[in-house]
Amino acid sequence: MADVPEGKRITGRTKIFFLLADPVGHVVGTAVLNAHFERAGIDFAASPVHVRPDDLATVLAAARVTRNLAGLGITIPHKIAILPLLDEVTDRGRRVGAVNFVRRDPDGRLVGDNVDGIGFATGLARHGVEVAGRRVVQAGAGGVGRAIAFALAEAGAASLGIANRDAAKAAALAAAVRAAFPGCDARPAAATARGADVAVNCTSLGMRDGDALPLDLDGIRPGAAVAEVVMTPATTPLLAEADRRGCRTVPGRVMLDEQMALVQAFLGL
Amino acid sequence: MADVPEGKRITGRTKIFFLLADPVGHVVGTAVLNAHFERAGIDFAASPVHVRPDDLATVLAAARVTRNLAGLGITIPHKIAILPLLDEVTDRGRRVGAVNFVRRDPDGRLVGDNVDGIGFATGLARHGVEVAGRRVVQAGAGGVGRAIAFALAEAGAASLGIANRDAAKAAALAAAVRAAFPGCDARPAAATARGADVAVNCTSLGMRDGDALPLDLDGIRPGAAVAEVVMTPATTPLLAEADRRGCRTVPGRVMLDEQMALVQAFLGL
Predict the structure, then answer these.
(1) Domain A6-114: CATH class, spelled out
(2) Residue B49: its chain A contacts at CB < 8 A?
(3) I want to staple A174 with a disulfide (CB 3.0 to 4.6 A). Which of A27, A186, B57, B247 is the partner?
(4) Which helix (H) or strand (E) is B227 found in, with range?
């Protein structure tokens, strides 16, 4: 059609992608994915799909028979519930116990993965932050925290201190990380970066005015790295404090940018 | 996200829409719909969904539980097969025996309609072509021809001659139109516009070089109207010939433009 601008066209040649969420109103991941693929020159369109937990299997059945579907993005509250409904889950996804991307193979098989952690670890490497052999401390043992803990251990962290308000959750995650990666001395820990080479915030602290710092930076050595998962604001109080102390800082946005490239590869696009 | 241009954003607030087709590669209707809704300032994104006939019920089950889905567009080969799978079909859709748009109501009910005919008839009216009380002849008794025949009768055509290569199909359509609209003298007819006030091409003749004219325009009176469903080329040989004879002409694109507004109203957007 002559009056449809080329750049905005979604046609029968476009690879489609659904981001499953409930609720859906706050979702912006579709826009981020679409911007990435547009920059990459790939004809792709991600749409949000609002699906309730009880209806997840029904939507996955349709995904299997939707032949131009590249895959699915999975977000709250489906990341854990989706595991038994998939045809295959990568080792990475099974270790984390949560899936955030699903590929649709040409035969309709749905393969789940979790690229939160590898996105984060790849972002650190790209910013010159070495993890192999280093002492790492992280705050948070929730969904993203689990993904990042396994990825840091897989990247060769010598030790990993996990600080979490619910200490039992930190201990359980530490034990799971040690079991998967015996070379990494993962332990529950206090919320301090003292003596760490790399300190990571995997909580949502820093998003809201007046939030406490997720990690106490007293005693962190200048030259250590401090990294965030919080994306808004770009400079969290933790990063500002790290900067004052002469640490290197890695903003939360880095994880998302790296994930886009990883998702593109995972989907085979 | 600051780096996603506003105009191209598909987010959790976007109303989504799927156009079901098999094959899917040639589909441009999604781009036409998206351009229409963008002009109308409505946050909407249509994606093509490639679904095989055997999988149609599976995809409709997911459509019922996709809570941000405005509706579905239905194209080849699903327009007829979908009828028994829907929760409701408008009188118009049932008369035509084919559905091209489906609305998803908030409770998940799927309601089918067919706006091919009403789009065409509305386009004629907007171009000042009166149908009520007039003698109309149309070529074609296929899917689009059926939709247009009922719409012309509903618009008050005094008579409707239906020319079709398969004469039995023309006779069956004429009988169905008379049964639904007894005030319209619908009959199978020869492929000539002689004596007609309005002549309509509902076949694909005119799309390819060397196609025969769908209707013989000998004896059509100057001032009569000749209308097309063929959109490419914009000026078909039939319209060029009609213009030479001093007839008013209505290009095929008009039907599509009118349908966009009708679809928007039908979907409640």
Answers:
(1) alpha beta
(2) 16, 66, 68-69
(3) A186
(4) strand B225-228
Question: SS3 of A71, please?
Answer: strand
Give how far the C-alpha of residue A246 lies from the chain's centroid of Cα atoms, to the nearest Å.
Answer: 27
H-state helical runs in chain A: 29-39, 56-64, 91-96, 116-126, 143-154, 167-180, 237-244, 253-267
What ipTM was reported for this prediction? 0.88
B15 is catalytic: no
For residue A84, the 8-state DSSP code is G
- The answer to whether the beta carbons of residues A159 and A186 sit under 8 Å apart is yes
pLDDT digits (tens, 9 = 90+) for B226-261: 999 998 899 999 999 999 999 999 999 998 889 999
* Mean pLDDT calculated for residue range A207-215: 95
Of B10, B26, B35, the CB nearest to A30: B10
Q: Are A148 and A120 in contact (CB under 8 A)?
A: yes
Among candidate residues B229, B257, B267, B239, the one with its CA nearest the CA of residue B39: B257
Q: How far is B72 from chain A (nearest CA, A)?
A: 14
> For residue B96, with 0-12 CB atoms within 10 Å meaning exposed, 13-18 middle and 19 or more buried, which class applies?
buried
User: pTM of this prediction?
Assistant: 0.88
Q: Minimal CA–CA distance to B207: which of B242, B233, B172, B187?
A: B233
Interface test with B, best of A15, A19, A26, A30 (most B CBs within 10 A): A30
Q: Cβ of B50 and A67 within 8 Å?
A: yes
- Domain ranges, ordered by start, for chain A: 6-114, 117-256
Yes or no: say if B43 and B59 are a contact pair by the CB < 8 Å rule: no
Q: Which residues of A are marked as active site? A: 79
pLDDT tens for B28-45 read: 899 999 999 999 999 999
* CATH fold of the domain at B117-256: Rossmann fold (3.40.50)
